[in-house]
Specification:
The chain is mainly alpha-helical. The protein has one domain (3-173). It has helices at 3-21, 24-27, 31-36, 43-68, 75-101, 105-127, 135-155; strands at residues 164-165, 170-171, 175-176. A three-stranded antiparallel beta sheet has the order 1-2-3, with no helix packed on it. Strand 2 (170-171) and strand 3 (175-176) form a beta hairpin. The longest helix has 27 residues, at 75-101.
Length: 178
């Protein structure tokens, strides 16, 4: 299997894994899962889900790369870039439609798939670049920092529309807007 096929599998696998990770906190409500998976239906919590899902499927992708004996460079940089940029790209595409037309499940899925395809292409490009010095250390630190931020904002959300769960009328994990 070549790298292109692995990335195509990764696009589809990441998209499908999002459906599972969306509900993991509901199935196993605990402090650890609250850092990685959505605790409510706010836009921000879904960005956390996207970030985490890309990281998780990149582990599977890495195993496929090893099994296929494919040479790649900048693996952790690619992993961080895909996950971090997915949040930015999703919001850039999604928010204008959301503000104009409101909530739409079909729009969510289309934007999710497009976002995953774009970031996986970016990751593919990074695999083929010259090895970047210290990228493993820097990328690992940045991934950890992102999860610390996600965890903090789950328990201390900013009172803006991105963090507001319109279905349950609350911010974050326990803060109800009554």
């Amino acid at each position: 299997m070549n790298l292109k096929k692995i990335k195509i599998i990764s696009i589809i696998g990441t998209f499908l894994l999002c459906f599972l990770t969306h509900f993991l906190y509901d199935l196993f409500p605990n402090a650890l899962f609250s850092i990685f998976f959505p605790v409510n239906e706010s836009i921000w919590e879904h960005m956390k889900m996207l970030f985490t899902t890309i990281i998780l499927f990149n582990v599977i992708e890495y195993l496929l790369i090893i099994k296929s004996n494919v040479k790649v460079n900048n693996y952790l940089l690619s992993c961080f870039s895909e996950s971090f940029l997915s949040v930015i790209i999703y919001l850039i595409i999604y928010l204008p439609f959301y503000y104009r037309f409101g909530e739409s499940m079909l729009l969510n899925f289309i934007v999710l798939f497009i976002t995953i395809a774009i970031v996986k292409y970016i990751g593919f490009s990074l695999f083929n670049k010259k090895e970047i010095k210290y990228q493993n250390i820097i990328s690992s630190i940045l991934i950890i920092i992102c999860f610390i931020i996600f965890g903090y904002l789950t328990y201390h959300p900013i009172k803006t529309h991105l963090f507001f769960d319109t279905m349950n009328e609350k911010y974050g994990l326990n803060d109800y807007n009554i």
